[in-house]
Amino acid sequence: MDDVSAYVNRLKEFAKDNLIIDVTHLVCNLIAYSNAIGELELYNYFFSDDLATDEHKVFREPVQYWLVTAHFAHLLLKQNELVSSSHKVYIWGRCSSSHPIYFDPVVKKIFDAQNVL
Predict the structure, then answer these.
(1) Which of 113, 106, 109 is nearest to 92 (CA)?
(2) β-pairing verdict for 89-94 and 64-68
(3) Helix (H, G, I), strand (E, B) or coil at 48
(4) For residues 106 and 81, is the Cβ–Cβ distance under 8 A?
(5) pTM for this structure?
(6) Which of 10, 48, 77, 101 is deepest in the core (most CB within 10 A)?
(7) What is the edge-to-edge ordering of all strands in the sheet holding 82-86?
(8) Over its length of 117 residues, how does the chain's per-residue pLDDT go in tens digits?
(9) Closest Cα to residue 27, out of 63, 81, 51?
């Protein structure tokens, strides 16, 4: 196996270990339901940076939502990513979807920074 293939395999394994499941459909349905009944609190929950520091709070519109590990959630926050947390459940609001999840630039950056090469 060449170095590139080995790198990609380790990157895929890293993503598999930290990105638990794509919950986009569930979150979007919950947001649509809450909007239909006039409850915007759920909408605001997923579109706010509740774990970010004040200077990093900005409006972002995720295109995917991923249930992630607590450790990975904190690594995402260091990259100024949108992460919501409630009852030890961490959801990453992924703002791009042009790459497979394991090739997402943020995932790759975190992976490379962890020195798991």
Answers:
(1) 106
(2) antiparallel
(3) coil
(4) yes
(5) 0.80
(6) 77
(7) 19-22, 64-68, 89-94, 82-86
(8) 688 999 999 999 999 999 999 999 998 888 788 777 766 566 565 555 555 555 655 666 788 999 999 999 999 999 988 888 888 899 998 988 888 999 999 999 999 998 644
(9) 63
